[in-house]
Amino acid sequence: MLRLAVALSVLAAASAAAADEDGRKLFTSVTPACALCHTLKDAGATGAIGPSLDELKPDAARVRQALKTGIGQMPAFTQLSAEQVEALAKYVEQATR
């Protein structure tokens, strides 16, 4: 039973790391890239147009909403799939904690 618990824990950690990497890649590669406007230390982003995400520390729900509907000067990213929106939202939340 202990071996199963350890195996599941390792699998969950690997899955979370893969999701973080997907979110990080999307942050720097979507068009226009989030990194062009936003500062996010974890992604090496130093954008100065939008708010610093390191300071704002948005939760995943706030990122999801901004991506889906836009906010202020930020356009909606309607070209992203639901999975991509989720990966970005979780990544930004995790990277700013």
Automatic annotation (TrEMBL):
Matches recorded under Gene3D superfamilies: Cytochrome c-like domain
Signal peptide, first to last residue: 1-19
Top-level taxon: Bacteria
Database matches in InterPro entries: Cyt_c-like_dom (IPR009056), Cyt_c-like_dom_sf (IPR036909), Cytochrome_c550/c551-like (IPR051811)
Tagged with keyword Amino-acid biosynthesis: no
Domain called Cytochrome c: residue spans: 18-96
Any one GO molecular function term: electron transfer activity
Keywords, comma-separated and alphabetical: Electron transport, Heme, Iron, Metal-binding, Signal, Transport
Official protein name in the record: Cytochrome c
Species this protein is from: Ramlibacter cellulosilyticus
